[in-house]
Write a structure and sequence with these properties.
The structure holds 2 protein chains of 2 kinds.
Chain A: H1 6-30, H2 35-54, H3 58-75, H4 83-101, H5 108-125, H6 128-135, E1 140-147, H7 159-169, E2 170-177, E3 195-202, H8 206-212, E4 221-227, E5 266-267, H9 272-280, H10 288-314, H11 318-341, E6 343-345, H12 347-364, E7 368-373, E8 378-380, H13 381-402, H14 406-411, E9 418-427, E10 430-437, H15 444-453, H16 465-470, H17 493-502, E11 506-512, E12 516-524, E13 529-537, E14 540-545, E15 549-555, H18 557-562, E16 568-571, E17 574-580, H19 581-584, E18 595-602, E19 605-611, E20 613-621, E21 635-640, E22 646-650, H20 652-669
Parallel strand pairs in A: 7-9, 14-22, 17-19
Antiparallel strand pairs in A: 1-3, 1-4, 2-3, 4-5, 6-8, 9-10, 10-12, 11-12, 13-14, 13-20, 15-18, 16-17, 18-19, 21-22
Helix pairs in contact in A: 1-2, 1-4, 1-12, 2-3, 3-4, 3-5, 4-5, 10-11, 12-13, 13-17
Chain B: H1 2-13, E1 18-26, E2 29-34, E3 38-43, E4 48-49, E5 59-63, E6 66-71, H2 73-76, E7 89-97, E8 100-108, E9 110-118, E10 122-123, E11 137-143, E12 146-151, H3 153-174
The chains are: A alpha+beta, B alpha+beta.
Chain lengths: ~675, ~180
């Protein structure tokens, strides 16, 4: 077994932390007084700093430390949270990302600028009275005694940074307790035998000290004792001469304390860390290809299991049958669990856009409200990753070109804040992701003029709206009258189109002048699990995505005879064209006496498919067709049935188009 | 043409004088494939016909949870179909098509053995007097009184892929 590269692990972890921090900051921006959010951001920053230092990302740790300090003050109520602060930390967060990705790069200047920015934000927020209070902070003397587990160093914990962190908190005196060191012959150099006694005079609260130990808290012994609040005068160097209460057991140097009353020792229970730790332990990061492998194994298991069932069914051995039934149930459950593992809700994807819209709102001076819908829609992880860039561009486009300025909006009788809606839903074996704005809409005339000017269409070409809108996805097409900061970042609408094409998806554009535009991306669930309707045509079995199925009905013999010439059935007063799959697939078999029609639809278009038998529901993992079969458009993929046979999955969109074409053809003939 | 064929054979032998191959029968002729591309030898599996696909790859099979096409080399060589026997096997191979690795099954009548072919015994396919397309054959290797055919799978699959591609562009032109 190989261990993952710790640096890579840290990077993934850091990326997640940064995302959390960002989400927290954005929430905070909406509700500046939210104490939980402030704490969450602080914790995120602290963890990032800690693990950054642990993995040698020193620049990151140092930089993050300042942000953390700023947030610590907010957390303690010394400084109020302000928009300026949130914005400053958001910018700083982006810089942290850069520091994580390229720790060796030259970041000095940016760091300095951002920190200056941050300081200004904090100072600006600092009201005079708080500053007053800060100038003479109440300082408390803490006695801290801690020891780390013996194997701590072997596990990668270095106690020295902990001590450094304590020193940062205030005036500090650290004494090592070497009493536990064994004789040389028993000494293992990797073991840790030293514990520490620390006296710390600080204005920080107890929690700040606990935070120092946040990463090692689980295994260590930590005692923090608050000694009566002391003034700095009382803790002058001279007063050290009088040892009052030597910290037991054996201190090798005189330990001093100037206080009289000692409160009861407090063993520190790992407070928020505990909850956090148990939460993270619920998630495991696994490379996607391992899941694919596992999926294949489960597939094989299911096949082996069905052979076992057949054998058991054929034998009279009751015990064997019982075992076989158990295995059947277990492997079925295993498959079901397996199937959902790769799917992730689009929440993750949509989450990124809150930040984008927040920034865009600042840059453009427009008020933008982002509404998301259907975040629980699940999409294959690889699809989500590939969708991110095109969506960013589409959202940018909506903010930049679609939405008007607040004044224009008021003049048009709309609410001042523009609204962008991101929604996801599943339809007919596809995920539909829609970006909708309530801005000015696409200007048809300008699109046309531009297309004519750049020679994409001949002058006065007769185009439908849809055809016209599709022109905006042509390379080099932009109707923006002036190039802004938002556009021209290297991703054009043509790239959006290319990416969606690569995912075998389609783009639909709708627009109403003055009311806004709507762009929908229909992406097939490539490696998704779909519920399918298993049907038989001739000797072959096929899967029709259940989400596309409207209804099933029987094709009566009369209707069958009548429809020899025209392939239509009447379904509640409307004519539905149908395709005989037996003819389409050239099975060469005789039709079953009672054929069925499965009516499928994509949106508003319906088509009937005549099959021999409807077998039933079937949950399917879609396997892509081999490259050698890319010419076969009728099928979008294949799946493996419970008995190990392969069934092909019908491409609904293609069949509907074919049916509609047939209908048009018949209409023209008739 | 002969030049080109010689060139291909050079690639196959790649400077080696011996080649490990798997030998098998299709329609009474003995074929050999380089052993390193062979993934697995399977008993016949249930085949699923893909309506509308080329006859050369008219079926798919379930190979360990993967759906892979089953290729029929006989069609590339214009041979008669043979009935499956108790000796029939599927050889699963990994080949590169347009730079992407693709798994495919090949239906065979009988699989013999892994053996070593000597370069000295091989010769390029004659350009005349053969009913098979010469570019589909890497070389012929003499063994005893018989010839073992080493097919050029890349050429065979590429030819099929080309036909598919051209039919796609043809089809879209019609639309």
């Amino acid at each position: 077994m190989s261990f993952p590269d710790p640096i890579a692990v840290f990077r993934t972890e850091a990326a997640e932390l940064l995302e959390q921090i960002e989400a927290g900051l954005l929430d905070l921006n909406v509700n500046l007084g939210d104490k939980d959010r402030i704490d969450a951001v602080f914790r995120g920053l602290h963890t990032l700093k800690g693990s950054g230092a642990m993995f040698g990302f020193d620049a990151l740790a140092a930089f993050t430390h300042h942000c953390e300090t700023a947030f610590d003050r907010v957390r303690k109520g010394e400084v109020p949270a302000t928009q300026a602060l949130v914005t400053a930390v958001l910018e700083a967060k982006d810089h942290m990302r850069a520091l994580v990705e390229t720790p060796a790069g030259d970041h000095e200047a940016t760091s300095e600028a951002l920190l200056a920015n941050l300081r200004a934000a904090v100072e600006g927020a600092d009201n005079p009275s708080a500053a007053q209070a800060l100038s003479a902070p109440a300082r408390t003397l803490f006695k801290i005694r801690f020891s780390l587990p013996q194997n701590a160093m072997a596990n990668g914990t270095n106690p020295l940074p902990l001590l450094d962190e304590l020193r940062e908190l205030g005036e500090c005196r650290i004494v090592a307790d070497r009493s536990a060191i064994p004789s040389l012959d028993l000494l293992s150099p990797t073991d840790l035998h030293i514990s520490w006694n620390v006296e710390l005079l600080t204005s920080q609260p107890r929690s700040a000290i606990e935070d120092v130990f946040i990463f090692v808290m689980d295994d260590m012994q930590l005692e923090i004792t608050a000694v009566e609040a002391a003034t700095s005068a009382a803790r002058s160097p001279e007063s050290r001469e009088t040892p009052v209460q030597p910290v037991e057991p054996v201190a090798t140097e005189p330990v001093t304390a100037s206080a009289s009353r000692v409160s009861a020792p407090v063993t520190v229970a790992p407070l928020p860390t505990d909850a956090k730790a148990s939460k993270t332990s619920e998630n495991v990061r696994v490379p996607a290809e391992k899941l694919d492998e596992l999926m294949d194994r489960v597939g094989e298991l299911v096949i082996a299991q069905s052979r076992l069932s057949q054998l058991a069914g054929g034998s009279g051995d009751l015990q064997l049958r019982a075992v076989s039934e158990d295995v059947e149930r277990l492997s079925g459950e295993l498959r079901d669990t397996m199937m959902v593992l790769r799917m992730v809700p689009v929440t993750q994807l949509f989450g990124r856009f809150r930040r984008l819209v927040h920034d865009l709102s600042h840059e453009t001076g427009k008020m933008i409200e982002l509404v998301t819908e259907g975040e629980s829609t699940e999409v294959d992880k690889s699809v989500i990753e590939r969708l991110a860039d095109p969506l960013v561009h589409l959202v940018r486009n909506s903010c930049d070109h679609g939405l008007e300025t607040p004044d224009e909006r008021l003049a048009a009788g709309k609410p001042q804040a523009g609204r962008i809606m991101l929604s996801a839903r599943q339809q007919a074996g596809e995920v539909i992701i829609t970006i909708k704005d309530d801005g000015r809409g696409i200007n048809r005339e300008r699109v046309r003029a531009k297309a004519e000017a750049s020679g994409l269409i001949p002058p006065n070409a007769n185009l439908t709206d849809q055809e016209l809108y599709q022109l905006i996805f042509q390379p080099g097409f932009s109707t923006a009258q002036q190039v802004t900061n938002l556009s021209g970042r290297g991703v054009g609408m043509d790239v959006v189109k290319r990416t969606i094409d690569a995912l075998r998806g389609t783009i639909n554009v709708a627009s109403h002048a003055g009311q806004g535009s709507e762009i929908s991306l229909a992406i097939p669930l490539t490696l998704a699990i779909i519920d399918g309707l298993l049907v038989r045509v001739g000797a072959g079995r096929y899967v029709i995505p259940l989400s596309a199925v409207e209804e099933c009905l029987e094709l009566s013999i009369e209707e069958d005879m009548r429809s020899r010439g025209r392939s239509f059935i009447s379904l509640r007063d409307s004519l539905v064209p149908f395709l005989r799959l037996r003819d389409l697939f050239r099975t060469g078999t005789k039709p079953d006496p009672f054929q069925k029609v499965v009516v499928i639809s994509t949106g508003s278009e319906r088509v009937g498919l005549v099959v021999d038998q409807i077998i039933g529901d079937h949950q399917t993992v879609i396997k892509a067709m081999s490259k050698l079969h890319h010419d076969v458009a009728t099928f979008s993929g294949a799946t493996i049935l419970g008995d190990g046979d392969v069934a092909l999955i019908l491409d609904v969109g293609h069949l509907v188009t074919e049916g509609q074409q047939q209908e048009a053809h018949l209409r023209a003939a008739g | 043409m002969n030049e080109a064929v010689r060139k291909i054979s050079e690639d196959l032998w790649n400077g080696r004088n011996e080649l490990e191959v798997l030998t098998f029968d299709i329609a009474g002729e003995m074929f050999a494939l380089e052993a390193v591309i062979v993934q697995e030898i399977l008993d016949l599996l249930p085949e699923t016909v893909v309506p509308g696909a080329k006859a050369f790859v008219g079926c798919v099979i379930n190979f360990r949870g993967k759906v892979i096409p089953l290729a029929d080399i006989r069609l590339a060589f214009g041979m008669e179909a043979t009935k499956p026997t108790i000796d029939s096997r599927i050889i699963v191979i990994a080949i590169n098509i347009d730079g992407e690795p693709v798994l495919a099954g090949i239906r065979t009548d009988k699989v013999h053995e892994v053996t070593t072919l000597l370069r000295a015994a091989g010769e390029p396919p004659p350009s005349v007097g053969m009913r098979w397309r010469p570019d589909f054959i890497e070389c012929l290797v003499k063994r005893g009184t018989e010839f073992i055919i080493v097919p050029n799978l890349n050429a065979i699959f590429a030819a099929e892929a080309d036909r598919i591609n051209s039919s796609i562009s043809h089809g879209s032109a019609q639309r």
